[in-house]
Amino acid sequence: MPKQYHCPVELAVDIIGGAWRPVILAHLKEGVHRYGELRRRMPGISEKMLIQRLRELEAEGLVARHDHKTVPPRVDYHLTDEGASLAPVLQALYDWGVGRAERTKTTIDWPVTDRRTAPKEGTPVAE
Amino acid sequence: MPKQYHCPVELAVDIIGGAWRPVILAHLKEGVHRYGELRRRMPGISEKMLIQRLRELEAEGLVARHDHKTVPPRVDYHLTDEGASLAPVLQALYDWGVGRAERTKTTIDWPVTDRRTAPKEGTPVAE
DNA sequence: CCGGGTACCTACCAAATGGTGCGTACTTGA
DNA sequence: TCAAGTACGCACCATTTGGTAGGTACCCGG
To answer: Which residues touch strand C (CB under 7 A)?
Structure first.
């Protein structure tokens, strides 16, 4: 028996709900595609969760997985058309998040893992 | 130490995430205000959950609770300005849900609890 | 040969989420 | 007097979600 929804929002939340799915989708929408890159952009998620969510999004037809079958492994994920149709939702969430952060004086700690700005091996990092 | 977010979407989802919060907010946005009415519109939620979520949304400043202090009890909830600022998010979720339902041939089982169409006491209901 | 990086998987455990059922207090209707 | 309806609160339990810590397999640099 397929799940019964009583409101379109219920259906939407059932598919893209949860703490991480929208964040993953938003990153993919912004052009982050590789698994490792997603990980670095989301320091709060565990590898297990990331993989699990990616698999679910794949199963729901929102993201497609592309394994280059090279070694070292290289896999990237991108939005399908169905996933891309979520753009308005993701954008709205993003925009609201920005506004809310300002209103509540919350800072966003961007983990900008850009190769050009990342610390070199020689750079001492406090630990 | 306040929670650290690494992306505005993370922040947004942390506040309005979960299975029920967006649905409640969407209903309030549409003009359903009384507690009992919300319940009837969301047959899948238990009373406990509904109250719990409403309390959380209240604490986050998204909804305001108004107790008429009459007997029998009459309480209604409405969006605050902060809650109303979520309109684009809720609308996007709603619209996507509608489209997704069509694409996946999922039907939405609206629990239209309208007094004019609701069964009268005399109406025998199979059980 | 050893560590690090890639992209995972598996088992085990803790916390959050959500459901059931019962109780409150008060009124109206049968 | 008793059930029903309003809007909850609370205790207990099951399910779900998520975290931690390991391991796989392969390559490259030192």
So the answer is: A 34-36, 47-48, 51, 54-55, 65, 67, 72-76; B 18-20, 44-49, 53, 71-73
